[in-house]
Predict the structure.
Amino acid sequence: MGITGKTQLIILIGNPVEHSMSPKMHNAAFKELGLDYVYVALRVDNNKVKKAIEGIRAFNMKGANVTVPHKINAMQYLDEIDPVAENIGAINTILNKDGHLYGTNTDGIGAVRSLSEEGVDLKGKKIVMIGAGGVARPISYNFAPDAKEFILFDIVESSVQTLTDELNEKLKGTIHGYQSDSEKIAKELQDADIFINATPVGMYPKVDDSVIPKDLLREDLVVFDVVYNPLETKLLKDAKAIEAKAISGVMMLVYQGVAAFELWTDKKAPVPLMKKMVLEGLGLI
């Protein structure tokens, strides 16, 4: 399908954007469904974010993705922001509703769907997560409301306390945060249902590292690692070795894209194809 005067344009704004797999993933999905859409990645300097957002309206684009370092700055130029994204303090997706720009954050949605597609229900579960940085925020705001208990750890005490205080202020639930301590982590994991690594530990090239020792894992513990390169981290290998459910961060990457795709097109996304495109882009298949 060639580009015509009717083609709907969706852009990615960030800096840099050359490494992004979003064009490959979304354009393949548009083609698969026969949609007259095109997705283009555009490098936008920090001082031109407002102009870029105005361009979405001016050129009547269907929408956009927003990546680092503009996820926070872009919010002020939108007409409406999803309440969860408002709490997170960052957006990654924009929908143009006839000139009314709506912002949301699909990162946490992607994480939730990664687990739900594996048959994992968050409701009434005790969730333990290590990491209180950027990736932890959308996960926290999407997971904590359904959890029986939500326990956070981070090596930086101020980071984990700040996020914990925010969550307790804005959400209902049993939410606690602690500076990382091996004995405390071990104790909290004894009756946990879900464990999440929201740190870079285990990421290439340090593939032999794991955020927790294997002996803290159990067969009935769901283990979710946000790291997606390698596809199977040491943490996930350890989990699989004891027959625990192990979920890779690559699916969070895929499903955040799926959520954006479905918002823009109002069509069910071709998930297997989008996953294949991401894995190809990462050089993992």
Notes: The first helix runs from residue 22 to 33. The first strand starts at residue 8 and ends at 14. The chain is about 35% helix and 20% strand. The chain has a mean pLDDT of 96.
